[in-house]
Amino acid sequence: MNDLQVMKYLSVNYRKSLLMLFYNNPVIENDRDEIVRILAFDYGQENANQEIVGQDMNFLIKNGLIEFNEKDNKIFLTDKGKRVYKKLLKKETVPKDSANKERNETIADEVIRLALDNAEFFHDQNKEPFVLFKLKGHKELHPVNSSVFRQWLSKLYYDQTSKALTAEVINNASNLLKGKALFEGKNFSLYNRVARYDGHLWYDLTTDDWKVIRVNESSWEIVGDAPILFRRYNHQSPQSIPDHSATIDDIDLLRKYVNMSDDDFLLFKVTLISYLIPDFPHVIIILSGPQGSAKTTVFKIMKMLVDPSVLLTLSFPTKDTELVQNLSHHWFALFDNISSLKKRVSDLLCRAITGEGFSKRKLYTDEDDVIFNFMRCIGLNGINIPAQYPDLLDRCLIITLNRIPKEKRRKEEDLLKEFEKDRPKILGSIFNIISKAIGIRKNIGLKEFPRMADFAEWGEAISQSMGYPKYRFLQLYYDNIGTQNIEALEAHILGPVILKLMEENDIIEETPTELLQKLEKIAEDMKVKTNSKKWPKAPHILTRRLNEIKTNLLDFGIEYEKDRSGSERKIILKKKNSVIASHDEENQNEKNGSDDTSEKNEPS
Q: Which residues contact 568 (CB under 8 A, 6 or more apart)?
């Protein structure tokens, strides 16, 4: 039997003595390290506690040596003993970081179990992970990546164990819960501020108790547990609680905060109310007017009524991805003091109005795109009309604000304080009007529609709900479209030239080359810059430019066609009765023949 085998049969106390002998006798060197391992292992087992039991041998060696050194420290007084001790710790024991990692993994498992028992994890329509948990008697929804969720997780664990969580444990648990939300959780659609579901309209009050408003054609009420989920953003502010005692006429409390004509006030009210109704393309409201007409203040009031936020107005960011994110986070985005829009921004706003998708890369190193698919309400204001491109103008409604006389000017702070007192009444009135409009819209029976057809239908229903005569809103809206057409044609480099050409001609039929020559001559007389990049330099470019304003010319009474029947390609411009004029005439005929006695005079 060799020395090692003999050592295994010796008592622990005797092994201690041998160990002391080995360390103090430099002659004995054979198998020293292995003997020390055995002795330390036995000593570790003898002094084992709950933390040590079940661990591997190396972990016991480490603890055995530490215990042995603390109680019998004379053994390690020699330099050689210290060197052996350090060597064993370095080569044979479990690193401290590894032990902490194992302990953190155990705690993370417990945290994950607690989270799954107390919350529901799911993903939204954009494949983003979310959590839904109860707090103070109501349900709250937050992104798994959010600081709110991390704080809730920490509190949940502390309430159960009276212990705090480390950042490492929270990160580990959060990462696994993200995976569960994405790959095991259900898919739920999330809404921003407004929604349509199960035959009702829903409006998120963004209050601390997470209550919402449910609207149908018979009534509206505040409820605490909606069947749909609203996503909230940090910028959103709580809405004032609408006053149930408000009447439909209380919407006219707005009149003292805006300085515009009576016709524009009707358009303004209808457009504002429509922004609380989801799932159709809304017009972009444009407030134009001179300095001192309170454009920014009116925007703030609109934002507070539709989509309260700490950011009442916005400015255009330099990057398109940031603009998309702003639009994603705001149901009603109001851009203040805009002088002009670039073509790419104009196109982006058109996409946001009609609900077309956007995509952006999460990170430059990530191949996955983040898809944004939403329909938003947008407002622009400026001294001049900032929208210039026909596609965008076709989606706009232009309101002109008048300059406020000096004797009627007030501090914005005082005006907004007064508005805060009126806000519950105005909101109650708005929801009364929407409830009534839902029923009227079912039987509105319009025979023709402008480009923003859904807005026109809802607008007419809202107008009638407020007591205005039939088709009064539509008449004013078509007049406004005429203003848009004028703006679009005047903003387009060919628009004024075409209008001048058609002043003295009922029909023009020319080849593109011939027509371009005529237009260049008229442009020279009108001092239009034909050296501009926007001016067509070739016949085939002329047809492209005419296509840009084709619908605007048509609404203005000028029809544009291309004729390829003969040997030469020709462009035909001819006058016709405008759609607007014919629609007004038809509506007037219907009004004159109507026996509806429920109409009331237009509010002043």
A: 511
